[in-house]
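Translate structure to sequence.
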């Protein structure tokens, strides 16, 4: 299970809308408790380093951005616990390309952006053998409200 605050959810949605019709991407910074529950404290957006003609259906993160994210997380007492990206005009489910590029352990939050407006959001975790993605329960909770949404 992964818990995302309302502020973080709004930030992910804003990034998806800002970069539409291209895919946005970035890091999920947070902590994993002793029960394995993940809590996203913040995101670190990074430029989609994919080829210009492919950015509408692919994202790529540069190794230097990964190192910078690890450093920033460590300075804040956090870890890189996953990644987020958008799917312009497609469902919030992982593609075969996503599976080929993913690593086990991390959470992969995917936001569907339809005609420039953010839509459904989901989270996935790659199986240890890298054969498939498993749906991860995603709880989006507003910081100052008791209301919670589950996807």
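Result:
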């Amino acid at each position: 299970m992964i818990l995302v605050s309302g502020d973080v959810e709004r930030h992910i949605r804003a990034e998806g809308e800002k970069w539409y019709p291209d895919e946005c991407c970035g890091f999920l910074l947070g902590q994993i408790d002793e029960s394995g529950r993940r809590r996203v404290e913040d995101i670190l957006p990074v430029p989609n380093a994919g080829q210009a003609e492919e950015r509408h259906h692919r994202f790529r993160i540069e190794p230097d951005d990964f190192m910078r994210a690890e450093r920033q997380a460590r300075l804040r007492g956090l870890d890189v616990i996953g990644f987020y990206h958008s799917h312009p005009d497609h469902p919030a489910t992982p593609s075969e390309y996503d599976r080929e590029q993913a690593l086990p352990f991390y959470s992969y939050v995917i936001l569907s952006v339809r005609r420039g407006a953010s839509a459904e959001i989901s989270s996935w975790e790659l199986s240890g053998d890298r054969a498939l993605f498993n749906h991860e329960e995603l709880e989006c909770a507003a910081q100052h409200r008791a209301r919670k949404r589950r996807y």
